[in-house]
């Protein structure tokens, strides 16, 4: 308890020298500590999601202002953090209309003692414009995979620092936000004789199975100072893929993996989804809890469509069916939603954020993990959903659709055209691949000719080399620049140092 001046005088201790210092220490010990920084995301013209995490049960407090000095700041009371939510807190901050840049400051007050308040952590975000202006955003995926965790002696996850230097308006994380199936070793001997030294937490010593172990995967990445600085300054649009749960998973799968005591993948995925939603600034809708696919307009010229290629898929297979439920990938409801959303979009450019590529062959043993099936003929299996989508875009004259993806751990620019394809009922389009952010590097992959892809550029490890550590420099992200006046879209593929590897300038097709 904190002693008052009257208490001290009653004890006969002039000035209270002996007891004042312990009282301060006790008060300090009750102050919550923000452990994982702050994030923002899922921004609309008048609202955005704010996120943080604290070390004990507490109540979130937020200040909002249009200036970094927080003059005239508005106060918001956020939710309580409890162990049942992993001590995370998310607030859908509304009433932001008319603000271009939002500065926010987060504190937590201890439950039961409102005077015990954490030190503040500040963040900023830029809201979507309502009139034309230049826009820059980045995308990539794959964080802390293949045994490559945080090596603080090498600066940690430095690609995040490079991306922050590009001053983007927002960032799309294309999935594999964590590697819940990838335990870390404290030391990894490198081919050049050096040693990679991972920071390791208890949750990263084994595969994730319990809800707390999945939470620990996300908490681990937020130990990196580069990640925290990036998250505080750049709003996020986040999607998931397989490694948030387990490699190449699909609903209904049962594991044959001795590392797991829980073999039911659908149960693991339910725990993984909950942890993913707790640890990301993703807005959840009461009518559709847990939904990950969604859309965001960012000004009059740009709209982003975030896909979920994991939740609705059928089992991985030879992927050459001519129809039926076994060909599901996006799923009927999501595919219908996407088509309807594209029809009603008034944006010039329509960005499809896809957690997996279309034409690259991604194998799962003798089966296939993505869309392509290594059969260059007419669409079969999961290719049928993509064929339906591409044909609808052509028939309904929906132009300027660009696909952005990650997953395959190298970077590439692919151009798809019906003149090279077996299936010809579509308009030409681009798919750009980037990543990893901080994981092993592989590739390049093989392309399936069904939709006529052509490699315009790629960069991957030298032939015969795979799972290169981040220190080798084969880490990648993509940058997209929209010119507010001409509406030209420029896509640039960059490496971990920020060097330009390839640039593609796209002029809009006007209807």
What does this structure look like?
With 511 residues, the chain is of the alpha+beta class. Helix content is 17%, strand content 27%. It has helices at residues 5-10, 17-29, 158-164, 211-221, 225-233, 265-278, 332-344, 383-395; strands spanning 34-41, 48-54, 58-65, 74-81, 88-93, 101-110, 113-117, 121-126, 135-140, 170-173, 187-189, 195-197, 236-238, 294-297, 302-306, 349-353, 363-364, 367-368, 401-405, 411-416, 429-433, 453-459, 476-482, 489-495, 500-506. The strands form 6 sheets. Strands 14-15-16-19-21-20-22 form a 7-stranded mixed β-sheet, with helices on one face. The protein has a 6-stranded mixed β-sheet with strand order 13-10-9-23-24-25, with no helix packed on it. Strands 3, 4, 6, 7 and 8 form a 5-stranded antiparallel β-sheet that branches. Strand 6 and strand 7 form a beta hairpin. The radius of gyration is 24 Å and the shape is globular.
Physical arrangement of strands within the biggest beta sheet: 14-15-16-19-21-20-22
Describe the biggest sheet?
7 strands, mixed
Number of strands: 25
Structural class: alpha+beta
Shape: globular
The percent range for strand residues is: 25-35%
Which consecutive residue ranges, at least 5 long each, have pLDDT under 50? 1-20
Helix content: 10-25%
Report how far the terminal alpha carbons are from each other: 71 Å
Instruction: Give the overall pLDDT as a whole number.
Output: 94
Q: Radius of gyration over alpha carbons?
A: 24 Å
- If helices are DSSP runs of H or I spanning 4 or more residues, what is the number of helices? 8
């Amino acid at each position: 308890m904190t002693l008052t001046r009257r208490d001290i005088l009653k004890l006969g201790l002039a000035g209270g020298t002996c007891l004042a210092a312990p009282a301060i220490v006790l008060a300090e010990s009750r102050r919550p500590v923000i452990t994982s920084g702050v994030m923002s995301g899922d921004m609309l013209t008048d609202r955005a999601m704010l996120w943080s995490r604290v070390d004990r049960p507490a109540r979130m407090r937020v200040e909002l202002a249009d200036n970094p000095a927080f003059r005239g700041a508005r106060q918001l009371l956020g939710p309580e953090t409890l162990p049942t939510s992993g001590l995370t807190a998310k607030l859908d901050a509304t009433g932001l209309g008319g603000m271009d840049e939002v500065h926010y400051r987060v504190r937590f007050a201890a439950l039961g003692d409102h005077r015990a308040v954490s030190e503040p952590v500040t963040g900023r975000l830029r809201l979507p414009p309502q009139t034309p202006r230049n826009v820059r955003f980045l995308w990539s995926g794959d964080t802390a995979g293949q045994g490559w965790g945080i090596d603080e002696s090498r600066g940690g996850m430095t690609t995040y620092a490079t991306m922050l230097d590009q001053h983007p308006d927002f960032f799309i994380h294309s999935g594999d936000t964590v590697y819940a199936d990838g335990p870390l070793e404290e030391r990894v001997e490198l081919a050049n004789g050096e040693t990679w030294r991972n920071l390791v937490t208890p949750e990263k010593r084994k595969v994730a199975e319990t809800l707390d172990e999945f939470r620990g995967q996300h908490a681990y990445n937020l130990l990196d100072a580069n990640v925290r600085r990036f998250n505080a300054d750049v709003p996020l649009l986040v999607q998931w893929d397989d490694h948030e749960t387990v490699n190449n998973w699909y609903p209904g799968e049962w594991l044959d993996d001795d590392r797991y005591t829980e073999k039911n993948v659908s149960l693991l995925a339910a725990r993984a989804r909950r942890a993913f939603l707790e640890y990301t600034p993703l807005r959840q809708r009461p009518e559709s809890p847990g939904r990950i696919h969604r859309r965001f307009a960012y000004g009059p010229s740009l709209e982003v469509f975030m896909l979920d290629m994991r939740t609705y898929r059928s089992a991985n297979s030879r992927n050459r069916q001519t129809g039926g439920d076994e060909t599901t990938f996006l799923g009927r409801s999501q595919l219908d939603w996407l088509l309807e959303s594209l029809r009603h979009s008034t944006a010039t450019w329509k960005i499809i954020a896809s957690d997996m590529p279309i034409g690259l062959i991604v194998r799962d043993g003798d089966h296939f993990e993505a869309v392509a099936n290594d059969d260059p003929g007419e669409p079969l299996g999961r290719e049928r959903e993509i064929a339906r989508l591409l044909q609808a875009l052509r028939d309904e004259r929906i132009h300027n659709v660009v696909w952005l993806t990650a997953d395959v751990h190298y970077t590439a620019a692919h151009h798809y055209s019906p003149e090279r394809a077996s299936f010809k009922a579509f308009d030409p389009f681009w798919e750009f691949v980037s990543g990893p952010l901080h994981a092993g590097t592989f590739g390049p992959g093989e392309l399936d000719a069904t939709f006529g892809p052509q490699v315009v550029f790629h960069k991957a490890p030298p032939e015969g080399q795979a799972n290169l550590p981040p220190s080798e420099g084969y880490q990648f992200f993509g940058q997209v620049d929209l010119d507010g006046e001409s509406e030209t879209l420029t896509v640039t593929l960059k490496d971990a140092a920020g060097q330009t590897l390839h640039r593609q300038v796209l002029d809009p097709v006007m209807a």
